[in-house]
Amino acid sequence: MNSKQSRFVIGLVIALIVVIFAILNVNPVTVSFGFTHIKLPLIVLIIVTLLLGAIITMLLSSTGNKKNDKKLSRNAKKQFSNLKVSNDSQIADALKENEGKKQTK
C-alpha cells in the first residue's frame, strides 16, 4: 500500500469515528457567538466544526508553497547549470591531459 492509499484509509477511519461520535451525541446544545445564541443538535455542531477545520487546513497547507517551489526551481536550475559547467570544465581538462599524453608518446 502506498502513502496516498494509507493516508486515505486513515482519513476514512478518522471520519468514521467522528461520524459515530456525532451520531451518539444528538442532544441540542446552545452555542454563543457573543452577540447571539443558537440552539442546535450537537451532531450538526460537530460536523460543521469538522468541515471548517478541514477547510482551514486545506487553505493553510497550500499557502506559500508556490513561492517556495519557484525559488526551489530557480535554485535547482542554477545549481544544475553550475554543475554542468563544472563537469564540462573537468571533461575539457581530462581531454587536454589525454591529448598531452598522446603527444608525448
Task: Give keywords.
105 residues; mainly alpha; 2 domains; two-stranded antiparallel sheet; 2 strands; cell membrane
Q: Structural class per helix/strand content?
A: mainly alpha
- Major sheet details: 2 strands, antiparallel
Work out the oligomeric state of the chains in this entry. Answer: single chain
**Run of helices and strands:** HEEHH
Q: State the helical fraction.
A: over 70%
Mean pLDDT score: 78
Distance from first to last alpha carbon: 61 Å
Spans of at least 5 consecutive residues whose pLDDT stays below 50 are none
The largest sheet has its strands arranged as: 1-2
If helices are DSSP runs of H or I spanning 4 or more residues, what is the number of helices?
Answer: 3
Q: Please tally the β strands and state the result.
A: 2
Question: DSSP strand (E) fraction?
Answer: 5-15%
Overall geometric form: rod-shaped
Structural domain tally: 2
What is the radius of gyration?
30 Å
Task: Please explain how this structure is put together.
With 105 residues, this protein is mostly helical. It has 2 domains: 1-63; 65-105. Helices cover 79% and strands 10% of the residues. It has helices at residues 3-24, 42-62, 65-104, and strands at residues 28-32, 37-41. A two-stranded antiparallel sheet has the order 1-2. A hairpin with a 4-residue loop joins strand 1 (28-32) and strand 2. Helix 1 runs antiparallel to helix 2. The protein is rod-shaped and about 95 Å long.
